[in-house]
Each structure stands twice: as structure tokens, then as C-alpha cells.
User: Fold this.
Amino acid sequence: MAKGLPKSFKKSLWVYHCNSGSCNGCDIEIIAALCPRYDVERFGIKLVGSPRHADVLLVTGPVTRQMVEKVKRIYEQMPDPKAVICVGNCGNTGDVFYEAYNLVGPIDNILPVDIYVIGCPPRPENIINGVAKAWVKLETLEAK
Amino acid sequence: MNTKLANKITYQIPVGPIHPALKEPVQFEFEIEGEKIINVDVSLGHVHRSVEWAGTRRNPIQILYLAERICGICSYCHPMAFSLATERAAEIEVPERAQYIRVIHQELERICSHILWAGVAAHEIGFDSVLFLTWQIREKALDLTEYLTGNRVTKGITMIGGVRRDITKDMYPTILEGMKYFKDNFEKIRKIFLDDKTFKLRSQGCGILTKEDALKLCAVGPTTRASGVKKDVRVDQPYFAFGDLDFDYITPDLITGEINGDVYDRIIVRLLEVKESIDLIEQCLDKMPSGDIVSEKKIAKLLSILKKADGEGIGRMEAPRGEVFHYVKLNGNESPHHWKVRAPTYSNILPWIPMLKGNQIADIPIVAASTDPCMSCTNRVAIIDNGKKYQLDKQKLYELSVEKTRRLM
Ligand code: SF4
Assistant:
């Protein structure tokens, strides 16, 4: 458990997952984190179908030109306080696609990213760790 | 004609055009009348992440890692097809042992992918407990992949002229134990998918692709085999060690005795293929000869061979979703002169048109999922209602689908 978390969480985190042009590697690891082996639902972490319900935005992929506006719009639709987690190397740095002409990413060119989860794809443990860190951010924001 | 009928308004639903997970961006335009889809139009766009373009500025060994990231689920087939093409272009011989190891990895990926698909299909009709059940079984396949390659998803096992890691005798027990686990669980999964009332109601007679259409539209993989077309690159044009192994085309009549080409048949084909893959892996372990696993161990030397090579080659492979095709042209430079990739979903998109026509909106998710594309396509659907635009997103589609299951029960 990440340092700084209160003993009981005040809220369960709802996560919206947005694919901005990823190769699917990260996306399947996110689903794997939800499934019985890792089972993040036991912590109250849940994938939701609309950004308007979400506390945390998980973005994967290097943000292709066609997706820029959509990613921005999704971010704007989320209620405050919110946290953005960038999952996977290609969203963090461009990874193997770094020089491609159709990319506008990395994601932090477009959104204020709070937590970078590295790996291509990151293991589910790592993704869960990232979400737990987002928790700390949100709870500190709320305490203010 | 009845004037009321003639005045019936049809709606246009655009789906896409961005399909982030695929290599090909896709746009669908559905024309619907009430709940019924009366027409579907598909348009394919340009290359998305400019992977091929990036490939022509890197050397072939770097491309292996780029090709691996074309698709996270077929992360073995793409680099392997690329290396098949490059080996042909540069006339590199692959040692016998490597051929068997290549088969093992490919079949393991197929097991992984088909089980993943089974979970997604269950999810699309609102049967989430089956999603969790199948993905739990899939974790075992991922454990095995990690044991053999060191990674869970992107495997990094391919090398031009062979593979990067050996499978030694002391690894056999773990692999065989994994195969036993799949066999033990096979019956459980078969029962759920083939005998369960909910699955039958939603999948039988839904999304039909006739044999003629499958042939005409060049469908590939399980999608075409479920319509009774005997097409499988592994049998038609054996590569790796497939020529020495004992297996055959899988068509749904093996279980039901008839071919309908519906979603149910596609489920049957994939289930049987999992079984076949288990069998192939066991055969490989049995027959694997000793020897080298790669033709040229020193990467620098291999690169200089590739740099001098001049020629072109194609690589065809039967990926979990169908035939993947790579074309490479080397012209004595550091990086290939040309590299062209055609992923299986590209061929399986047009068959969506006859499959979806006449079905209901609520069937879009399961019919589309039945060809095993990357489903992010349904993310953004907007219905234009008398010029007023409102969004029908994946969530809404999914709810419609779940509702239909309930109604049928
Ligand atoms: S980080 Fe790697 S695995 Fe994840 S989406 Fe990007 S390329 Fe795919």
C-alpha cells in the first residue's frame, strides 16, 4: 500500500480508460488487473464507461493526430478533483513510435499527467501501484 | 406501397473513424430503421501510427521490436512474419530446432488470444462472470509465456534466423503441466459456451456469413473457417515445422455436423482451435530435434549480412485472427527499402457488412466481436436524429446488448 494513505479509504476510485492509439498491449494488462488474479475491485477500483463518473483517467497510447481533440475532451468532461495516469512507455515518451509523423504525444504535451507508469506494457502490479498513487493525490487534494 | 412505410425515416450511425487499436483506422456508417440495421458502409483510412514508415528508417533487428508493437495481442505473429519475409529476402536458413520452438510460441499465443476473445465475447453479451472465469484461465497461459520468454505480453523472442531463447528439457514438465491445466478446464469452458442457454440464444442465427460471402470477401482465419471455407495457412502452405505435425482444418461441423456461419459457429471453431493448439505444442515437445536455435548468433554479423542482402520476400502466417502477411524488400541498405504489413482484421472487416445487415443494433457488439477485432471501434457512435446529434457510446451499446440478453431469458 502506498505511503500516506489513511487506514480506510474515503472513496473508491473509479477509473476511466482511454485508448489514444495504443497497440492494445497496455489495455489488456489493464483488464488483466481487473480480473481474478489481481482483482482490483476488492479495493473498490472500478472501470467505468463514462468520463463523467471517473476520478482517474488512465491514458494509454502515443496520442495519434486524430485522437488529440478526443483525449482533451474526455479530460475536460471529468469532474474535479481528478488525476491522470499515463500507462505505458509509448504514452510517456513515444517508445518505438517516437519519430512517427502521425503522433502528437507524448501525453504530457496534451494533458497534465500526474503519474507515469512505465513498462511496455507495464505489469498489472505496476498499474495498480500507479492507481494507488493517484489515490494519495486525490486524498491530499480533498484534505485541503 | 404503404405511405407510412415509405415515409419511415432511417437513421445514420457513424462508427469510428478512429480505431486506435487496429493498424487500420476504420469508419462504419450504419443505416438503421428502428432497431434494424438495413445497410452498413465501411471505409478504410490511412496508416495510423506510421509504423511502416518508421520501419524504413531502422535496421531489420530494430524493426522486430517495432513490429511487435503493431498489436499487443498478436505480438508474436507480426515480428515473426516480418522475420519470415526477411529470411526469404536475405536467404537465411533457420535451424530445425528453432522451427519447432517457433511453433510452440505461436500456438501458445493462439491459446492466449482465443481465451481472451472468449472472455470479451462473454462480456459483450453481459455475461461478466464468464469473462472473469476465462481470464483466470488465461493467466496460466500468460504465466507460461512469461516462463518461456521472460515477458507477459510483448514477448521479445523473435530473432531473424531463429529465436532468442531455447526451450530445454527441464522446462518440459512446466509446459506439460500448463497443457494439462488447459485440458482440465476445456470441458468447463466448452459447456458454458456451447450448452448454455444464454449463449445459444444470443449467438445462434446471429451475424451469419455465408460460404459464398466469405469466399467473395476474402475473410480469413476462424471467421472464414466457421463459414465452412477450408483456409488455414498452416495447412495450405506449411511454414516453420507445421509440415511435420499432424493437424487439420477446423470447421464447426466437427461438433454440430452442420455449418451455419453464425456467431455460434465462430465460437466452436475457436474452442476447437484451442484444443488443437494444445495438441500441437505436445507434438512439438515430442519431436523437437537438438541443434542450434539461431542461424547467426552474433548480431553485428547478422546485421552485416542483412545490409548486403538484396531481394524481396513475403512472410505469411496464420495468426490467431487469420492470415497475417508481411512483404519486405531489401536493397543493400541498412534499412529495408519497403515494408508492407497486412493484418488479418483488414480482411475481416468487409465481412462485417453481410453479417450486420438485418441484425439489431444490440447485436453490433457481439457480431463485431465475433471476428475478433480490437473492439475500441464502438467507442464513439453518434446517432443523427433529424439533424440533432446525440452520442451512443460503447457503454450505451453494451447496455442495449445486456438488455437484449435479459429479454431473451
Ligand atoms: S506502451 Fe508498449 S504495450 Fe503499451 S500500448 Fe504502447 S507500445 Fe503497446
In short: Residues 15 and 56 of chain A are 5 Å apart (CA to CA). The helical segments of chain A are 25-34, 68-77, 89-92, 124-143. The interface with chain B takes residues 19-29, 31-32, 35-37, 49-50, 61-62, 64, 66-67, 70, 90, 95-97, 99-103, 120-121, 123 of chain A (CB under 8 Å). Chain A has a mean pLDDT of 82.
